[in-house]
Amino acid sequence: MSEIRYPYRTFRFEVEIDGVTRAGFSEVSGFDLNVDVVEYREGNDLRNTPRKLPGLTKYGNITLRWGLVGDFEFLDWIYSVAASEQAGPTGIERKNVTVRLIDDAGNPGPEWLIINAWPCRYSIPDFNALSAEVAVESIELAHEGLARVATGEDAGTASEV
């Protein structure tokens, strides 16, 4: 009889930025990969429909959200990007970010590598004296690629786009 394999749950994950694991993120969202479709038809083509060819690959921005705890690391990172506008785009500090799922036993699971990420947006929470919510900051990361990293049980199935 084969072993029963349960899918991973989305609420157990960790985020690693340039090799340093960060804790306390409540949400990571925006994983998106889109390949433009280019329609092409030659004038002497006998078909009445255009050929569809792959065009540019585009990646959606990734958003990280976490409870406000007074950490300035992300704020310093986005300020360094904002200041680099005067010096040109070469001054942007790009970092690789890994998002890793964790199984019910606490073992690392599938992971995704976000390549050459840099912050393009920072948001602070709204303040309301009548609310009892946790203050949640967020940062949006632009990036140049997304790769599924092969780990453990799926070591033979890595893919990069």
Concise summary:
This protein is mostly beta strands.
Your description of this structure?
- By secondary structure, the chain is mainly beta.
- Helices cover 9% and strands 46% of the residues.
- The chain contains one helix and eleven strands.
- It has one helix at residues 73-87; strands spanning 13-17, 20-22, 25-29, 33-40, 51-59, 62-67, 95-102, 108-123, 136-142, 145-149, 159-160.
- The strands form two sheets. Strands 1, 2, 3, 6, 7, 8, 9, 10 and 11 form a nine-stranded antiparallel beta sheet that branches. It has a two-stranded antiparallel ribbon with strand order 4-5.
The profile of the biggest β sheet is: 9 strands, antiparallel
Summing up helix and strand content along with how strands pair, one would put the structural category as mainly beta
Count of structural domains: 1
Overall morphology = extended
Strand count: 11
Rounded average pLDDT: 84
| Residue share in helix | under 10%
Q: What pattern of helices and strands is seen along the backbone?
A: EEEEEEHEEEEE
For the record, what CATH class applies?
A: Mainly Beta
Q: Cα-atom Rg, whole angstroms?
A: 20 Å
